[in-house]
């Protein structure tokens, strides 16, 4: 009798010890190729999580849409069939409308302003809305300021965008933004974009230097014009179903890794952006700077779109967003 009881206790102990030591496997899917900060950040994050959990959590990174488009991966996280991804806030805006404010055209003046807003109370409040949607947001990463590239002509004046078939993200604000500038907006996943540009199904697209380079758009687009029309942040997401199964120490390790990976991802994005202009010119692109006057004219033309999406994101969120930018500007 005594022996039997002891055996049960011993079995129970070894079972829980096993559970604690069990390796947890997870998948991190990105939409962009290995050379883009989104994927570089994902790999750094995976490395840090593994180190901080002493090999207990192993994350495998699948880049360049191997697991699907940003929208598909976001849905897979909600359903619990994929664990990590880092889509644009424009993709998330389809789920939580307040994320849409980040992409409002000509809002941020610098990356530092974006950091201050996204890392401050405003960004935290945005992330706090995700668990109700089956997602946990760990941090904001950088995609960067978006510029227009096309195969027809340099964009010197605001009117030069008119008539171009421009691929946009699958997000109403971006569709209306380019519609508002007189272009023909064609929404599609970034993973399909190279082929669409190559076959001339579309003339143009808009993305930061880092995406133009990583996706080799220089092979199929001649002109890059620095419209800088919107700043784009990525959100580092975990599936809530996965997150809730992690122990408190594992959650802490993942959060710490996210913080470190964020610093690395942003720094990488900024270093690349500084270097890639020269590199893209060398690869044959013709790059022109859009003057501050023309950017102001674009902004003017977009006033109705800005008003529509400011209201669409919710007056309160928009007010807090613009107040957070003002605050960042003072520092
Ligand atoms: O999610 O779709 C895009 O153009 C985005 O810049 C990119 O994929 C990041």
UniProtKB/TrEMBL annotation:
<feature type="signal peptide">
    <location>
        <begin position="1"/>
        <end position="21"/>
    </location>
</feature>
<protein>
    <submittedName>
        <fullName>TRAP transporter substrate-binding protein</fullName>
    </submittedName>
</protein>
<keyword id="KW-0732">Signal</keyword>
<dbReference type="InterPro" id="IPR004682">
    <property type="entry name" value="TRAP_DctP"/>
</dbReference>
<comment type="similarity">
    <text>Belongs to the bacterial solute-binding protein 7 family.</text>
</comment>
<keyword id="KW-0813">Transport</keyword>
<dbReference type="InterPro" id="IPR018389">
    <property type="entry name" value="DctP_fam"/>
</dbReference>
<dbReference type="InterPro" id="IPR038404">
    <property type="entry name" value="TRAP_DctP_sf"/>
</dbReference>
<dbReference type="GO" id="GO:0055085">
    <property type="term" value="P:transmembrane transport"/>
</dbReference>
<dbReference type="GO" id="GO:0030288">
    <property type="term" value="C:outer membrane-bounded periplasmic space"/>
</dbReference>
<dbReference type="Pfam" id="PF03480">
    <property type="entry name" value="DctP"/>
</dbReference>
């Amino acid at each position: 009798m005594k022996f039997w009881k002891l055996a049960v206790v011993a079995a129970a102990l070894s079972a829980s010890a096993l559970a604690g030591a069990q390796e947890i496997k997870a998948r991190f899917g990105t939409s962009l190729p290995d050379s883009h900060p989104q994927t570089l950040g994902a790999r750094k994050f995976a490395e840090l999580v593994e180190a901080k959990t002493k090999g207990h959590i192993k994350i495998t990174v699948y880049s360049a849409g191997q697991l699907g488009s940003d929208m598909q991966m976001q849905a897979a996280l909600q359903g619990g069939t994929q664990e990590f991804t880092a889509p644009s806030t424009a993709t998330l805006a389809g789920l939580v409308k307040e994320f849409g404010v980040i992409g409002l055209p000509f809002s941020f003046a610098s990356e530092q302003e974006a950091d201050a807003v996204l890392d401050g109370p405003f960004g935290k409040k945005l992330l706090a809305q995700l668990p109700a949607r089956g997602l946990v947001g760990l941090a904001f990463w950088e995609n960067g300021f978006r510029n227009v590239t096309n195969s027809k002509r340099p964009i010197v004046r605001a009117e030069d965008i008119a008539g171009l078939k421009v691929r946009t993200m699958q997000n109403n604000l971006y569709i209306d933004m380019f519609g508002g500038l007189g272009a023909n907006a064609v929404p599609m996943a970034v993973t399909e974009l190279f082929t669409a540009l190559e076959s001339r199904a579309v003339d143009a697209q808009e993305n930061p230097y880092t995406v133009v380079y990583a996706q080799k758009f220089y092979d199929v687009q001649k002109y890059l014009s620095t419209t800088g029309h919107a700043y784009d942040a990525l959100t580092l997401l975990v599936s809530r179903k996965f997150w809730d199964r992690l122990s408190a120490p594992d959650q802490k390790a993942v959060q710490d890794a996210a913080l470190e990976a964020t610093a690395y991802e942003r720094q990488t994005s900024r270093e690349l952006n500084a270097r890639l202009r020269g590199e893209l010119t060398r690869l044959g692109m013709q790059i022109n700077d859009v003057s501050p006057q023309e950017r102001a004219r674009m902004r003017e033309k977009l006033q109705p779109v800005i008003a529509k999406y400011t209201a669409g994101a919710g007056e309160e969120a928009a007010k807090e967003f613009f107040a957070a930018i003002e605050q960042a500007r003072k520092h």
